[in-house]
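Progress against Task 2.4 (sequence-to-structure conversion) is shown through the following example record, which the project officer requested during the mid-term review.
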Amino acid sequence: MRSLAKTNWMPLELLGFSVNLGQIDFSETNKGAMLFRFIPDEGHNNRSGFIHGGVIMTFADIAAAKILRTTDPTFRYTNVQTDIQFLNTATTDKSLICKCTLQKRGRSLAFVSLDFNSDGVLVASAKSIWRVYASVPK
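Structure tokens generated for the chain above:
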């Protein structure tokens, strides 16, 4: 992953349920790839004192949805499946960085991969499948 020191972070506008997570920033790295940054607080911990897996899952959903919306904002998307592997723990004293890559967007499905790092350590890796709608589903 490139150095984050020179990353041009911009705040991500969150709506609905996503607001509960807290501030997320993003940076476009190139077409089909984006970086996201989340700064957790104590309210994101599980009972063991690590960031709760549900927080990382929600972060994954938000990041994947954003990268899909950047491909064509006239389309709508809904998550069909997300598989995530938790590889290491993360704590609230360090930012959580997500590298999100759009693998493929077809007429009806889109495929996204996500890697989550904390202080250079791979915390989780995910693959997400999304349904593509040409208009808002009824």
